Amino acid sequence: MIYGGDREGKKGIEWKIGKRMIALIVAFWLMLPAYVPNNFAAIFGGGMPLDLGQVFQDGERTLGDGKTFRGTIAGTVCGMLMGLLQNQIAPFLGLPAFGTGFEQLPILLGLSLGAMLGDIFAAFLKRRLKMKRGSPLFLIDQIDFVIGAWLLTMLIAPQWFWHNFTPFIMIIVLIITPILHRVTNIIGYKIGAKKEPW
Questions:
Q1: Least confident of 24-33, 50-59, 157-166
Q2: pLDDT tens digit sequence for 141-165
Q3: Confidence class of residue 140 from pLDDT cuts 50, 70 and 90?
Q4: Helices marked H in 36-99 — which ranges?
Q5: Residue 167 gets which letter from DSSP?
Q6: Residue 180: closest CA among 137, 157, 148, 146
Q7: 181-187: average pLDDT
Q8: C-alpha pair distances (Å), 111 with each of 48, 66, 105, 126
Q9: For 19-26, which contacts have Cβ atoms below 8 Å and span 24 or more sequence positions?
Q10: CA of 47: how far to CAs of 114, 128, 153, in Å?
């Protein structure tokens, strides 16, 4: 026999679980334009390095051969294209849009280029720590592009950013990103797109 209080309690739990699942989907959705750039940069990268082969004052390469003009441009463009595609289907799915008209371009640029800049900064930091290209740096590798995407988008479109990236959504992103990062890197390593599985 189910009493009224038990039934209401069960409904309350189901509602909370449903709300958290929606928040998880929204968090993933909002970060997609920032999630894909580094993967496409690895696929389409190569060529002239961003640091032009220059050595920093500590005697190490400024960035290394892993960060190239072609990869940075390809990653940014692919991230923006992902966001434009999402904007077309967002109304049908009931998910947030990345602005409308020309407004969406700077927002998507912030997320996509910001992700690339975050990864570039991590490479710079690794070189200063005298770490070789591809060496893992715990936590930094997992969230560098997230912080970069957030900071640049926050500067370019603060109103849109704070409206969509609530504290709860940001916490979810910080939890799921290391997991997704690990999974996608393993896949990239398996198909030959990445040299290391991290």
A1: 50-59
A2: 889 999 999 999 999 999 999 999 9
A3: confident
A4: 37-44, 69-93
A5: H
A6: 146
A7: 74
A8: 24, 21, 10, 23
A9: 23/168, 23/169, 23/172, 24/172, 24/176, 25/95, 26/95, 26/96, 26/169
A10: 21, 23, 28
